[in-house]
Each structure stands twice: as structure tokens, then as C-alpha cells.
Amino acid sequence: MTVQLEVWGPYALFTRPEMKVERVSYDVMTPSAARGILEAVFWHPGMVWRIDRIVVMNPIRFTSVRRNEVSSVISADTIRSMINDPSKDSAIYTSSDIQQRASTILRDVHYVIEAHFDMNSKAAAGDTPAKFISMFNRRAQNGQYYHHPYFGTREFPVDFRLWDVDKGQPKGFENGHRDLGYMLYDMDYRDPADPQPMFFRAELINGVLDATDPKVSS
Prior knowledge:
InterPro entries: CRISPR-assoc_prot_Cas5, CRISPR-assoc_prot_Cas5_N, CRISPR-assoc_prot_Cas5d. It holds the Pfam family Cas_Cas5d. Keywords: Antiviral defense, Endonuclease, Hydrolase, Nuclease, RNA-binding. Its EC number is 3.1.-.-. The chain has a single domain (2-63, 105-217), classed as 2-Layer Sandwich (Alpha-Beta Plaits). It is of the alpha+beta class. Strands 1, 2, 3, 4, 5, 6, 7, 8 and 9 form a 9-stranded mixed beta sheet that branches. The radius of gyration is 20 Å and the shape is globular. It is built from 3 helices and 9 strands; from the N terminus they run ββαββαβαββββ. It is 15% helix and 38% strand.
């Protein structure tokens, strides 16, 4: 059973992992980011979202911004020492760790996510695909979510709604072929202690990113 969720926003940042200093976005939303949006709207331990297609509705446009980022995080040992000894200074100072970095981000993004889900062994006896589809559709229609979905970073929130089937099938913004190079597909969590990124060769065909049968590699 397929769902179609229309998502849009003024900015997006799907960071390319090979860019170590300045953040640079992929040209298009990644399948893992699309999965994260669906999970924000509806998630259940008895199901796993599978992204089929991402329809790019608006032309791909970039802009550059400068963002304040924290270059370090507080250590777990410091947190534990604060808990164990309340007399210690509990303030967390970040001003000295703030760095201003340039980011190349997408603007005026608009997609339709087409996806389905697989049931797994954690589904209860009364859980059915029809039940989950109904719950997802109701939540999406009412604008409900577990946490606000975002485009790559929480600074760039997502507006969403169910795709209006009366409009027919969503169509991409352009015709022809566009090679997007290697893109992050998702993370492999088979070893929870050491998750591994998986990449695939992405391309747009008539403005559509097809993720139904990706040839992934680590």
C-alpha cells in the first residue's frame, strides 16, 4: 500500500558527508531524510518505511548562508560529575565553541514522497497494513506529528499534507535525465554499535528520484 505525502519549505540542507568543513547540500532530498519525515508523522515498531520515489516539484536552486554552529559537545563524564556532585558548577558554556560557517543550502523546496512500508516481527496480532495506513492518513490530514519534521536540520521545518489524488500523479519539474552522483541512501543498523552509511548512484528521470531498487554500497 503506497502513501503520497507532499512536503515543502523555504530552505533545506541535506549535507553531503564528503564536505568536512563547510556544509553543502545534495541537490535533492535523500531517501533517509524522506524516511525521517514519514517517521515524524507516524511510526510504529511493527513497521519499516520504504521510500519508492521522490518527485521534485520545484527547480533545484541553491543559496549560501552563514550559520552559527557549536564545534564541540559536553562529555558524558562531565554530566555524570555534575549529577554526583551538585556543588560543582553546573553551567554549560558554549560561547567559546561557537563557530560561524558557510553553508550551501537549497531554497524553495517542494517534493512529493511516495513510499510503502513492510510489517515486521514486532507487529502485534491486531496490527494490519490497513490499520497503519489509516492512522498515517489521519495524522497527515490533521497535521499531527511526534516531532516537527524537518529538511535535514531542525532549522528548516517541513510543511506537509497528503497529496491530493484529484490532481493525478505528481510530476517532476523538468524533463530528461540528470545525474546526481553518489548519494546517501540510508544507514545500515545491523550492527547497532557501528552503523554504516550506504550510498547509491542517484539520478533524476523527468524530475523523479527512483529509490525502489537502489544498488547500494558502503
